[in-house]
Amino acid sequence: MQAEVPTARTAADTAAADRITGLDALELGPERGKAALGGRIWRSAWPKLLAVVIVILAWQAVVWAQWKPEYVLPGPATVFGDLGTLITTGDFWEGVQLTMIRAVTGFALAVLIGTVVGAAVSRFAPLRAAIGSLITGLQTMPSIMWFPLAILLFQISESAIMFVVVIGAAPSVANGLISGIDYVPRTWLRVGQVLGMTGFAKYRYLILPASLPSFISGLKQGWAFSWRSLMAGELLVIVPGALSIGVRMQQARDLSESSLVISFIIVVLVIGILIDMLFNAADNALRKRWGLTGA
Question: Does position 70 have pLDDT exceeding 80, yes or no?
Fold first, then answer.
């Protein structure tokens, strides 16, 4: 009889562990078989390809209608031919590299500042009462309104562009984090308190993971603001010797090279779409992790 007691306890522990594992599986969503890679790529790609075809056809129809002379509004064949030539030049990729360095640097600073401000505002009620509405007001301001002040503060320099990029993106990041923290279930907070989570550990292991969906949405919106601010900055604040995408586009406009202007517009659009796909992939991975995707 003495030897049977540990066996009974072991069986009970195993059953309890199985129940907990089952609850975790329900929380995180069921495992689904992975579809063929080619099929998943095609399902994701064909709507985008269809949209591109529709836009090109509409564009060609406008050219055929002779709404504007072709030297003002060239057709798709002319633009894509010039774009193909453009992307084979080293100067083009140097411009893309400069623009992306600015974009990543500005966005990283905005994420850092926005995260710190968002966490502080969500934690301290007096701070929220003081600047909560100000953050939303800054988020709604057009980025171009900041450029006169940026030029006065920093002259024609990289710092002027960075200032506008950061101030355009940081409020969106902060608001995304604030919204995510606000919607953390009160039950989870009480459970964390019972488990002894306080201070940094409470944020690290409970609040921040729970607020990730809203935070990622804030990051995505912040990137959109920073990208638009950067493009406006490169057109308005031309730093000597810095031949970025915006500067090259401005040069093409000054020379009335409509085909090159449209080519650079396409380049900016493609970069924006690629970055958006990265954010969507992160969002989908998070939703799948938490079992929020359809079966």
Answer: yes
Alpha-carbon span 153 to 159, nearest angstrom = 9
**Helices marked H in the chain — which ranges?**
4-28, 37-64, 76-86, 90-123, 125-140, 147-154, 158-182, 186-194, 199-202, 208-210, 212-236, 245-254, 258-289
- How far out from the chain centre does Cα 278 lie? 8
- Alpha-carbon gap, residue 244 to 150, rounded angstroms: 19
What are 243-284's pLDDT values in tens digits?
Answer: 888 889 988 888 888 999 999 999 999 998 888 888 888 777
Residue 108 corresponds to which amino acid? A
Instruction: Give the number of other CB atoms < 10 A from CB of residue 119.
Output: 18
Q: Give me the torsion for CA of 278, 279, 282, 284, rounded to 10°.
A: -110
- Find, among 107, 96, 97, the residue nearest to 245 by Cα: 96
